[in-house]
Design goal:
Chain A is α+β, with helices and mostly antiparallel strands. Helices cover about 60% and strands about 10% of the residues of chain A. Chain A has a domain of about 180 residues: Four Helix Bundle (Hemerythrin (Met), subunit A). Chain A is elongated, with a radius of gyration of 25 Å. The chains are: A alpha+beta, B mainly alpha.
Chain lengths: ~250, ~625
């Protein structure tokens, strides 16, 4: 390999650790943008695997148990959750025979609400970033970052409600009753759980954006990180829409 | 130029607070403390009568371990400081790069890619050592029929943990040390694109390996390294450790993959076009991209197993509408590409070695890239050949047989490139070349037996026998390990300034090479006769072949111990090598040995490809 180390004295300013080798922000930004896109690609594969799981289990519908299971519903004879469980703890002699318990799909409204709220929060970050680049006003950016974060926190609340609404069924395993979930409930739990993890990351990033812009680490001239966060944020919103579209339209077995 | 190993003297660094006192020891302390804390809280606040109680407590403990380990090593310092807008200063960056810290930096969250590369060498050795000890335990148990040393449950655990340890070891065996140590220099970069993420990938692997090794201490596994469901749902708490280890490991590979690709695509120096990239850089990048595709499946399937065990979901439980085939599909969607994540960096290193040692350009450079890309692409379309005999989607058997057999085309291109490169070359028969020839021999056997197994009628006969075991050990031991050792012998002088001891290296080669033939050819014989895999005892008709296999395994172990001795001895006492002992042209050989922090004083400008050997460079 022929090399020449004297012609160009680091004209591009490439470098990493050393004080003499500063890199221009646009060089660092280009690198970080590629990293974010690669990360989003990996996340998209995870989403596709989650949806594959969902569609596969619905497709095979093992034993007809996609949305049903032999056991007792979580709302027991006394009208409250865990009634069967408590009854079982006191001895199973008085329990009726287990029956096939059918479940209904989770609330589509709540599902869409979570997805749309996430996407809206992403659009707020996008607007904030555009505003920052246009007006150089970091204060407004910081405020909008807090708004987006607040939206994410509200979305997390609704996501927790979603998780809480996933119906359990008490089943008999090894002569004892325990709570279990159908394939539908299981796949919804992992999809919603994955969404919750993403929202937690967004909350972290949102707080970071707000604090950093307030402290001058993100300004009208240093807006690259805002764009990186926005790319991921909007992707999370889009992935939520995709997941909702699949799980609210393809759920019951006809 | 410096030509011998030098370590800068340790200099006390002022300021920086607690963050500058963090090292491997504080990571261990943090991991243990948080693991205990998580265990304590889970133990006291979870319902002890729950069927999932022990799994929930164990999972909490493993969460605590990895969080505490990250906190203790300093992995969370960067995100924490980003959050509050207190970015690292130049002094911080230099500190984390290990400037003036001597050998201490090898025990820290060091961001210098060369330090991370050396840490990966040690990590690979530890994983191979632990997996190797288990392999010897397995072979010792199998030397004669009947159970002698361990019971069946312990034996099953040995098989499972041996398998996964070796897989992890080989995933990082070439890509870990050398994609870190040499790839940035080969590209003409001062470091990896994201130095802190680089350290994160290494130390996350350490945390995951600790979890995996703990499996043996907490009740082990009984369902093989693929941890088949629904048996995995019913296994002891060792399964929780295993699943968490894999989830954490996936974080490590994802971060490392993104870092490698970004380094190659965005950090190349002027004139280093893609067409001038050393072939090893291509191999590392393609393997990284394939890993990015494959490992999310692995993470998800282990997360689902963990959920089945801790919150009673039904992913793999038929009563609730789940199925074990979901696990098999997700696992093998990862499992087959993973073979090539392991193989490609080793093949890339061997292309490099063949070119340098034969003083010829890589034969048909573009064909080599096409072969690696084609292999990566095809590898995501073959997963169901692992399930030919399970009854899953029999109508898809034909297409999957076809895609699997197509794999032999890009694989054949590898032979073409290597043979074409060394053909009529002025071959320098040094230690890396010896291992290269060993690879060629073994990889032929690995490839041909793979074609047999891709045919459904033959697979129906051999599936579940040790014939399959012998085949993939020819791939992993006979091919990948040989490639990894060749790479070690080749780049060792760049790390240490000294040659790997040639005599000990050759003794090691012959012991391992002959050991591989004795071990796995005998295993083919057992497989032909129908000996099942994963059994701790067997019929008398397999006795002789198993005896021979065990003798061969001991030969491999002896050879690896000799190699370990050579590595340790040569580190300080080997023959000095100078900065470019192989008279190679790629950039890593143009910098001093060991390379300084940031590699280049002035970034080079590249004007021709790295395989243009000129007369004055040809070995006399």
């Amino acid at each position: 390999m022929s090399i020449d180390t004297h012609v160009e004295h680091d004209a591009n300013g490439h470098g990493g650790h050393d004080g003499g080798h500063h890199e221009p922000p646009e060089v660092v930004d280009g690198r970080q943008r590629m990293a974010i896109w690669l990360f989003i690609s990996g996340d998209a594969i995870t989403l596709s695997a989650l949806l594959f799981t969902y569609l596969y289990l619905r497709g095979v519908n093992t034993g007809g148990h996609w949305m049903s299971m032999v056991g007792y519903p979580t709302v027991g004879p006394n009208g409250h959750s865990y009634a069967w469980y408590e009854a079982a703890l006191n001895g199973s002699a008085g329990l009726p025979n287990p029956q096939v318990v059918m479940q209904a799909p989770l609330s589509a409204g709540l599902n869409w609400l979570v997805s749309i709220l996430t996407l809206v929060s992403g659009l707020v970050v996008w607007a904030a970033e555009k505003g920052l680049r246009a007006t150089k006003n970091a204060k407004t950016f910081s405020s909008l970052a807090w708004v987006a974060t607040a939206l994410v926190v509200v979305t997390m609340f609704f996501t927790l409600k979603q998780l809480h609404s996933i119906p359990a069924i008490f089943v008999a395993i090894n002569d004892s009753q325990t709570m279990s979930y159908t394939a539908y409930a299981s796949t919804m739990m992992v999809i919603i759980g994955s969404g919750l993890v993403h929202l937690a990351i967004l909350a972290f990033l949102g707080v970071g954006l707000a604090i950093r812009s307030a402290r001058g680490a993100i300004t009208g001239d240093k807006w690259f990180q805002a764009r990186l966060v926005r790319l991921f944020w909007v992707w999370v919103g889009i992935s939520g829409i995709i997941a909702s579209a699949v799980t609210t339209t393809i759920n019951t077995i006809h | 130029m410096t030509t011998t190993l030098e370590h800068t003297a340790a200099v006390a660094t002022e300021g920086g607070g607690l963050a500058r006192k963090q090292n491997f020891l504080t990571a261990l302390v943090g991991g243990v403390v948080f693991a205990w804390l998580a265990w304590y809280l889970a133990h006291h606040f979870l319902d002890a009568s729950s069927r999932n109680y022990s799994d929930l407590v164990t999972t909490a403990l493993t969460f605590g371990w990895i969080f505490g380990f990250w906190l203790g090593i300093g992995a969370l310092n960067g995100p924490g400081r980003w959050l509050i807008g207190a970015d690292h200063t130049r002094a911080d960056d230099l500190y984390y790069a290990g400037e003036n810290q001597g050998r201490k930096r090898y025990w820290k969250y060091c961001t210098d890619h060369k330090v991370v590369g050396v840490q990966y060498i040690v990590m690979t050795a530890v994983l191979l050592g632990a997996g190797g000890i288990l392999a010897m335990a397995i072979r010792t148990e199998l030397i004669v029929p009947g159970n002698h040393f361990v019971n069946q449950q312990v034996y099953n655990g040995f098989v499972a943990v041996h398998g996964m340890l070796m897989i992890l070891a080989l995933i990082v065996a070439v890509a870990g040390p050398w994609a870190n140590f040499v790839v940035p220099i080969m590209c003409g970069a001062r470091d990896m694109a994201f130095p802190r993420l680089n350290a994160l990938s290494l130390w996350t692997l350490v945390g995951a390996a600790a979890l995996l090794l703990s499996v043996l201490a907490v009740g082990s596994l009984t369902m093989g390294w693929v941890v088949l469901a629904p048996i995995a749902d019913q296994a002891g708490v060792g399964m929780d450790f295993f699943a968490m280890a894999i989830i954490v490991f996936t974080v490590s590979t994802t971060v490392a993959g993104i870092n490698t690709i970004c380094t190659v695509m965005t950090m190349r120096t002027k004139g280093m076009s893609l067409a001038r990239l050393p072939i090893f850089v291509w191999a590392s990048m393609i393997a990284a991209a394939l890993g990015l595709y494959a490992f999310p499946y692995f993470s998800l399937v282990e997360a689902q197993t963990l959920m089945d065990r801790t919150v009673s979901t039904s992913f793999f439980v038929a009563n609730g509408g789940g199925t074990g085939w979901l696990q098999a599909n997700l696992f093998w969607l990862m499992g087959h590409p993973e073979v090539y994540v392991i193989l490609l960096p080793a093949v890339g290193a061997l292309f490099e070695i063949a070119s340098v040692m034969a003083r010829k350009p890589v034969f048909s450079y573009r064909t080599a890239i096409a072969g690696m890309t084609g292999l990566a692409g095809l590898s995501i379309l073959v997963w169901a050949h692992h399930m030919f005999t399970t009854g899953w989607a029999p109508t898809l058997g034909g297409p999957f047989m076809l895609t699997t057999e197509l794999i032999s085309i890009p694989t054949g291109l590898f032979f073409l490139v290597i043979i074409g490169t060394i053909w009529r070359g002025n071959i320098w028969m040094k230690l890396p070349t010896v291992w290269l020839f060993g690879f060629i021999f073994n990889f032929i056997i690995a490839g041909i037996t793979g074609i047999y197994l891709s045919d459904i009628p033959i697979d129906n006969q051999f599936h579940g026998t040790v014939f399959v075991t012998a085949h993939f050990h020819y791939v992993f031991v006979g091919s990948v390990l040989f490639g990894a050792i060749a790479a070690l012998a080749f780049w060792y002088p760049k790390v240490t300034g000294r040659f790997l001891d040639e005599t000990m290296g050759r003794i090691s080669f012959w012991l391992v090479f002959l050991g591989v033939q004795v071990t796995f050819l005998a295993m083919f014989v057992s497989g032909f006769k129908g000996m099942p895999r994963r059994y701790s005892s067997y019929s008398m008709i397999f006795e002789h072949a198993n005896f021979v296999t065990t003798i061969g395994a001991y030969m491999i172990m002896s050879g690896m111990l000799v190699l370990l001795g050579a590595v340790v001895r040569s580190w300080n006492h080997g023959e000095p090598s100078g900065p470019n002992p192989w008279h190679a042209n790629s950039l890593e050989w143009m910098v001093p040995t060991p390379p300084p922090l940031e590699n280049f004083d002035v970034l080079p400008v590249i004007t021709e490809d790295p395989y243009n050997y000129r007369e004055e460079l040809v070995r006399s």
